[in-house]
TrEMBL record:
Record domain Sieve element occlusion N-terminal: where: 39-322
Region of interest called Disordered, as start-end residue ranges on this chain: 1-23
GO biological process, one term: phloem development
InterPro entries: SEO_C, SEO_N, SEOA
Highest taxon in the source lineage: Eukaryota
Protein name according to UniProt: Sieve element occlusion N-terminal domain-containing protein
Limits of the Sieve element occlusion C-terminal domain: 494-634
Any matching Pfam family: SEO_N
């Protein structure tokens, strides 16, 4: 178990327990017409704590609880079955509750369960005081932890209640069951099921509250002790409530047992008295109050554990991606980034639209395309064009990579709002490469790592991993914009080599954008690039340039490249250029966007390589051209 049985010391060393119990007075007082005065409550809890002497033995109560819950769930549905004459199909109990090791555990506990069952039945028939019966059960369970006390008591109650309803279910078709049912006066009871329904509804409501509270207490025992200990305040507060929770749950079992016993001796008094109704509803209300308090603490514990595990996971990522770390392949790092323990197929293949495992990326160069859901259509269109071109010649060296989309979403809003989920699915449907099937498989520590180590902000980045999972480029998006797949394997060394081969020429500016301009270059024509959003200036420039070229017999071509911003203004200017046949202009706004984005990428690429020297002629030309994109006409 995680928190070891949530065991608590005996009164001689348990002052913290009494403090915790005192802190629950508000709970007791808030109940409707509290069943005990404050002083009685103090005395009662001292008696209960005096019985608590765990001997250190621990066992996993969950298999037994699964079995008990199955019994009680089926039993509490028999009233509707008898009244309506039908019942819904039941889900078969999990086979894990019947594993051999669990059978051995049950054999060891059978004697204790039988003793409690006998205590419940005997005291209920004798009309004993409920508190005295509850205390007697605590004495029987003195050596067990708080969660075990709950589950063993509930097992005993389920044994009695399940037997009662088993007879009711089969007495009409089984002679042995019929004889036993007559002894319990079941036939006369079952002839009047409709008037009895309010009584059983009250019982079932209380039984449901007993199950919920028991499961909640057991959940505390499963918390991982690696990340949370009993002295952590949020857990300590919950543990101090355990005695109160266990007492009132067992007290409720006693009340239910009394009600069942009374059914056999009530004659024709089929209704439920006001006193009985008040007792059952008050107990249910009390258990719900305790449950809500414990559930709140449990959620705080989960939050505490999540914070601890997130820190540990973040440290693991730092270790995995350490430049000196050695890996056989890329599987370990990919599984850390894209992790879902319940999902063996966390990726969607953009080509086939089928879910696939991470194994499709084993020992491959992987480009992690990291972005928010605000992915510009221009960026997506150009990336898709570059990617599709690389797939045409799949055997070429520069095509030996895979792209995986890693969407970054806000984990504080879970589940994702429908609008965000739709946006994710729409983006995913357009991508020809791999993407994660669910954006939530990218956990919070991974997002923190991506932001703090890989410096993701808002714009998409392209992190490159080699076949061993080592980062060879923290952001190859600029290389991709400038050289496309030619930049493979997208390492910093490759980036430097490509720059050494480049000179400031028109080919560099328009490569991959427009083959028409490249043809003009081959034809050795004079080419003007011009831009701006001032229509009158554009008219004057285009007409003047054309006149000069014509007079000088110069083979001149002009290309309008717009501006880096003001997209709508540029579209209007392009429309006028077309209408008046002023010059050549790119019709697709994406081409205009790509021209300016490639220029910015050239600048960022130089900066990323530490080559942003203002004396570098190419840097000077890049900056000059970028400055034109912010001016009027040029």
């Amino acid at each position: 178990m995680g928190v070891p049985g949530a065991s608590i010391s005996k009164p001689s060393t348990g002052e913290a327990l009494m403090k915790g119990h005192t802190g629950s007075h508000a709970l007791i007082r808030s109940d409707r017409g509290s069943m005990l005065s404050l002083s009685d409550d103090n005395v009662m809890m001292k008696q209960i704590l005096a019985t608590h002497a765990p001997d250190g033995r621990e066992f996993d109560v969950r298999p037994l609880l699964n079995l008990v819950e199955d019994i009680l769930n089926r039993a509490t549905q028999h009233v509707d079955f008898l009244v309506k004459g039908t019942t819904q199909a039941q889900i078969e109990m999990e086979e894990k509750a019947l594993q051999a090791s669990h059978i051995v555990m049950l054999e060891a506990l059978t004697y204790t369960i039988d003793r409690i069952a006998s205590e419940l039945s005997y005291k209920a028939l004798g009309g004993s005081d409920a508190h005295a019966t509850t205390t007697a059960i605590f004495n029987l369970l003195s050596s067990y932890t708080w969660d075990a006390k709950l589950v063993l008591s509930l097992s005993a109650f389920a044994l009695n209640y399940g037997e009662f309803w088993l007879l009711a279910q089969i007495y009409s078709t089984n002679q042995l069951a019929k004889s036993m049912a007559i002894l319990r006066q079941l036939p006369s009871l079952l002839e009047h099921t409709a008037p009895l329904k309010p009584r059983f509804d009250a019982l079932n409501n209380l039984i449901r509250a007993m199950i919920d509270l028991t499961k909640c207490v057991v959940q505390f025992t499963q918390l991982p002790s690696t990340y949370i200990s009993q002295d952590v305040p949020v857990l300590e507060t919950a543990i101090n409530l355990f005695p109160t929770a266990v007492y009132w749950t067992i007290r409720s079992m006693v009340a239910c047992a009394t009600q069942i016993s009374n059914l056999s001796s009530m004659g024709h008094e089929l209704g439920i008295s006001t006193t009985e109704s008040w007792e059952l509803s008050t107990l249910a209300h009390k258990l719900r109050n305790i449950y809500e308090l414990l559930k709140q603490q449990l959620n705080l514990c989960y939050q505490y554990i999540e914070e601890k595990t997130d820190v540990a996971f973040y440290q693991l990522l730092l270790t995995l991606f350490d430049p000196n770390a050695l890996h056989i392949d890329n599987m370990k790092v990919l599984k850390a980034l894209i992790y879902d323990k319940d999902d063996k197929l966390p990726l969607l293949d953009g080509a086939t639209k089928r879910r696939v495992s991470l194994d499709v990326l084993r020992r491959k160069n992987v480009l992690l395309l990291i972005s928010s859901l605000e992915f510009a259509n221009d960026e997506l269109a150009i990336l898709e064009q570059i990617y599709n071109e690389s797939r045409i010649h799949a055997t070429r060296l520069e095509s030996q990579y895979e792209v995986v989309w890693i969407p970054i979403v806000d984990h504080s809003i879970i589940p994702l709002p429908e609008e965000m989920q739709t946006k994710f699915e729409n983006l995913q449907s357009t991508m020809p490469w791999y993407s994660v099937q669910d954006p939530l498989v990218i956990k919070k520590p991974v997002i923190r790592f991506i932001k703090e180590v890989w410096h993701f902000r808002t714009k998409p980045i392209l992190v490159v991993l080699d076949p061993q999972g080592k980062v060879v480029s923290p952001n190859a998006i600029h290389m991709m914009w400038i050289w496309g797949s030619t930049a493979f394997p997208f390492t910093s060394l490759r980036e430097e080599a490509l720059w050494r081969e480049e000179t400031w020429r028109l080919d560099l500016l328009v490569d991959g954008i427009d083959p028409t301009v490249l043809n003009w270059i081959k034809e050795e024509k004079y080419i003007f690039l011009y831009g701006g959003d001032d229509v009158e200036w554009v008219r004057r420039f285009a007409n003047s340039a054309r006149s000069v070229a014509s007079a000088s017999r110069i083979p001149l071509e002009m290309v309008y490249v717009g501006k880096s911003r003001k997209r709508e203004h540029v579209k209007k200017v392009v429309g006028i250029i077309n209408a008046e046949n002023l010059s050549y202009a790119w019709q697709d706004p994406t081409m205009v966007w790509f021209f300016w984005t490639r220029l910015e990428s050239m600048l960022f690429s130089k900066i990323q390589l530490g080559r942003a020297d203002d004396q570098d002629p190419m840097m000077q030309q890049i900056k000059k051209l970028l400055s034109y994109g912010r001016e009027g006409g040029w």
